[in-house]
Amino acid sequence: MAEKTLPVITINREYGAGGRALATVLSEKLGIPYYDRDFVSRTTEESGYDQEDVEREGEEMSRSSQVLNDLLNSAVSYSSSHDAIFRAEKKVILKLAETPCIMIGRCADHIMKEAGIDTVSVYLHAPFEMRLKRTKELAEYGKMKPEKYMEDRDNKRRTFYKYYTGKEIFDASNYTFCFDVGKMSISHCAQIILDLINNAD
Predict the structure, then answer these.
(1) Which CATH number among 3.40.50.300, 1.20.1290.10, 3.40.190.10, 2.40.10.10 corresponds to the domain 8-199?
(2) d(Cα 16, Cα 131) in Å, to the nearest integer?
(3) E strand or H helix that includes residue 199
(4) pLDDT the model gives residue 66
(5) Does pTM top 0.85 for this prediction?
(6) How far is CA 51 from CA 40, 44, 81, 92, 94, in A?
(7) For labeling, which of 11, 63, 112, 177 is most exposed (least CB within 10 Å)?
């Protein structure tokens, strides 16, 4: 019997909803790598931009940046750093997708669909208080209030996704599965995904 071919798994998420935790479980169960912050170093090499630029612009875009991007892109000779970094990320994503893996964010679900690559796409969301607790545990908010930081990260991710896909990141029709991790544990979500993969023809 031929060995089962595993799909690429993509994960989008609200900030603090556990995207990395789900990727870790799936990676261990399936024996395939997951990519999250790994995109930064790979995209830095591909784009020629500094790591700081890629970290800042590689998955998030403020509304003011979107307006500026639209305005400047109307000039024929202009190419924004956001666009250049996204093109580089797209190349990295398509290269990684040559073998089964798990990708977090970066519009990977949309890029996979455009390329016709077999994908299981997942979106995670959770109640505000649960995500706030996780935000405080992650402690990435610096001098900002954690509530404000969480809201800011989500807004920038939504803007980035809408700009490069034309769709809303939270639209269930974009995904194979949407999970409320306030009602389902990460391990339960992972098992549902594994059941689908293991029972696929």
Answers:
(1) 3.40.50.300
(2) 5
(3) helix 186-199
(4) 55
(5) yes
(6) 6, 6, 12, 15, 20
(7) 63
